[in-house]
Design brief:
This protein has 195 residues and is an alpha+beta fold. The protein contains five helices and six strands; from the N terminus they run ααββαβαβαββ. Bound molecules: zinc ion. InterPro entries: VanY-like_core_dom, Zn_M74/Hedgehog-like.
């Protein structure tokens, strides 16, 4: 096919335009991939390994030293029951955490929610059992290494919470000194004290 000069010029312009569109497409694609990669990137620090049920230093450890005083005096999972306060059958917390928990439970009940504690203080032996049942974190399981769980410090509770109760917790638990310290575990609430 014969081409007139004007057509050749247009064809070259079209080619350049097409190349421009392709390059823009590639650029958008690469930027999208980078964005996706960033979105899917596992969160760092205490969110991945050290976070699950553990004392990450940034959670309960960053609050007043008194919160961890008993656990540090005796060691994680080694606190004598005589030093703790029973908050439900076979469920124990430090005296401060127990006082906070009483207020928390009263608030939950007043708002019409049930209060069911599935776990509180855990001894080293109990944490060992949990590790053998659930597997160790970082090895495909969900249990914190023995000696690293916040439960061993007698400051955490695992609660049965429905959606409405969880919403209440996020809005009001802090009033009683409790905070969600492990994002992946909405049932796990820890006494961090009241400022
Ligand atoms: Zn827990």
């Amino acid at each position: 096919m014969m081409k007139f000069p004007s057509q050749v010029g247009r064809s070259a312009r079209n080619k350049a335009l097409r190349l421009c569109i392709v390059l823009t497409g590639v650029l958008v694609f690469v930027v999208s991939l980078l964005g996706l990669g960033y979105a899917l990137k596992p969160t760092t620090g205490e969110m991945t390994t050290a976070g699950f049920d553990t004392i990450a230093g940034k959670t309960a450890g960053s609050t007043s030293a008194q919160v961890l005083a008993l656990g540090e005096k005796y060691g994680n999972g080694r606190i004598p029951t005589s030093e703790l306060v029973q908050v439900a059958p076979e469920r124990y917390l430090t005296p401060d955490a127990a006082t906070g928990f009483a207020a928390l439970a009263a608030g939950l009940r007043a708002a019409g929610h049930d209060v069911k504690i599935n776990s509180a203080y855990r001894t080293l032996a109990e944490q060992e059992e949990l590790v053998s049942d659930l597997g160790l974190l970082g090895e495909g399981g969900t249990a914190a290494a023995v000696g690293t769980s916040e439960h061993g410090m007698a400051i955490s509770v695992d609660l049965t919470l429905n959606g409405a109760a969880l919403t209440w917790m996020f809005a009001r638990a802090q009033d009683s000194g409790f905070s969600q310290t492990v994002a992946e575990e909405p049932w796990h609430w820890t006494w961090i004290g009241i400022d």
